[in-house]
Design goal:
alpha/beta; globular; 283 residues; seven-stranded mixed beta sheet; Rossmann fold; single chain
């Protein structure tokens, strides 16, 4: 199997970050990605079918989340960033973050230990903390969130590349847990649609049997409203990719065909996948 477990997907993503960083017109530079991906990523990529759509989507997700994270810190007063299922993300090392910022990576011990060892010779730019934890263990998530929330005035939670691997009831449980601490103000994630899950099932399902894509709510961001989270900002992957020079395959054909579609259907297709910033509601 190309992907043996969910942690392997972190190497997959790091590989695409490394490849983007090598481009002369790179949208971001991650000098640590190749080191983090390691030879295991090369083995994975030799088995997986080449897919420009997935590669571009990962690049766009990275650069858009970079922008939103900086906006939350610089303009929205965020003093704590909690990156759940952080994988091999290197933002605390590669981004221009304030030294006073408290950044917490949470993930399984294996993947976190690999990252810490790989980056042992480099210093994070902010106050960094790695918390090994299995958030599926009953009580672990609530206890961790309560502890972290007590030391923050305004926190941003990131679940990059996580929700799609969860079942709807698991996402609902996570959403309610994140709504518990009063300081948890913002939640940044990427969100797939039901149409995207069908596409992935056709193209990659046999390679992702050990880490299947599961969450793509038909109701979109409205799924999160009963959990206490309202959409504050939505960035369409399709539109961002077009604007930033990483268009999706057949983008020109889609633009032509969309002229014959209703505005409602075009809007639906533009939400094929996206990056969403949620704001905590008072309910």
């Amino acid at each position: 199997m190309a992907i043996e477990n969910v942690s392997d997907t972190a190497r997959w993503v790091a590989y695409y970050r490394a490849r983007e960083s090598q481009r002369p017109d790179a949208l971001f530079h991650d000098p640590f990605a190749e080191r983090l991906a390691g030879p295991r990523a090369q083995a994975i990529m030799q088995i997986l079918p080449k897919n420009t759509a997935i590669a571009n989507a990962i690049v766009i997700r990275t650069v858009v989340m970079d922008e939103i994270i900086l906006d939350c810190i610089n303009d929205r007063g965020v003093d704590l960033v909690i990156n759940l299922a952080a994988g091999l993300d290197s933002r605390p090392w590669r981004m221009a973050l304030p030294p006073s910022l408290h950044w917490v990576d949470v993930d399984l011990p294996g993947i976190l230990n690999h990252k810490i060892e790989a980056l042992a010779s480099d210093r994070p730019v902010c106050h960094y903390e790695a918390v090994p934890a299995d958030l599926t263990t009953p009580g672990v998530a609530d206890a961790l969130f309560t502890s972290l929330g007590a030391d923050s005035q305004r926190a941003l939670v990131i679940t990059e590349g996580l929700l799609i691997y969860l079942k709807a009831e698991q996402v609902a449980t996570l959403g309610r847990s994140l709504h518990g601490p009063r300081s948890f103000t913002w939640w940044l994630c990427d969100l797939a649609s039901a149409d995207l899950l069908k596409y992935i099932d056709r193209s990659h399902s046999k390679f992702l049997q050990n880490a299947p894509f599961q969450f793509g709510p038909a109701e979109g961001t409205a799924f999160f409203a009963p959990l206490g989270w309202q959409e504050a900002e939505y960035r369409s992957t399709v539109l961002e990719a077009r604007q930033r020079g990483r268009p999706m395959p057949r983008d020109l054909l889609f633009r032509i065909i969309s002229t014959f579609m209703s505005k409602k259907r075009v809007a639906e297709l533009q939400r094929f996948s996206g990056i969403v910033l949620f704001k905590r509601s008072n309910s």
